[in-house]
Amino acid sequence: MISGGNGDVETTLLIADAHPWTRLGLSALLNAVPGLRVVAQAADGETACALAGSAGPDIVIVDADLPDLGGAETIQRILEAGVEEVRGALLMVSAVDDNEIYAALQTGAGGVLLKNIPPDQMAAAVISAARGNMVFSPGVMSRLIDICTHRTTPLDYDGSRLATLTMREAEVLKLVAKGHGNATVAKILHISEATVKTHLNRAMGKLEISSRAQAVALSYEFGLVIPRQRVAGTPSAAHSA
């Protein structure tokens, strides 16, 4: 059985989807996983933003097709509100769509998952997100890399900030951009997971970005990582970074 959250700490969730049966089904699925608990549900973006502040969930799961704000804007508002408890947000999409994937990057979402993801993979993806990893359904990560490396319009970003990174911070950032989770990065560099998080947080602070997804986009956009270096294959649950 999949066990959720961080150790014995419960991970709380907010689900925002316009369809009640989807909310109920996803809630039942995730509530059945030890360590995960759905504390709020919303049928639209405005309600989701309000509940994020009042319920203080750890992870927010948002449908891309919310009827009022849309999924990307809902996530952006929640993250910009600076609710301390919210550690990450996942965007749920019906199909791999370049605009939705890139919008998720811009808003700081911690992952993009297809709605047809199998139940066990959905639970595993939420658990991975709760542990601070970036998660994508199979196929989404490769599209993300293609988007970042073949954009006709460059990111509106000062790439010279990459030069402010220390050698170790750059190494960690490269490995994260290539699809490795914190545990794998720690093994590759022979350092602790806590040290990986410290270097990554410092790198993101210097780059003035708020999510691992944005770190991936910048790494490919500005040549810190090139496509042929990306990780081959995809974890069974969801691609975790």
Automatic annotation (TrEMBL):
Keyword DNA-binding: yes
Alphabetized CDD domains for the sequence: LuxR_C_like, REC_NarL-like
Record carries keyword DNA-binding: yes
Pfam families: GerE, Response_reg
Superkingdom, taxonomy of origin: Bacteria
Annotated ranges, domain Response regulatory: 12-130
Keywords: DNA-binding, Phosphoprotein, Transcription, Transcription regulation
Domain HTH luxR-type: 158-223
Residue numbers bearing the 4-aspartylphosphate modification: 63
The protein's name in its UniProt record: Response regulator transcription factor
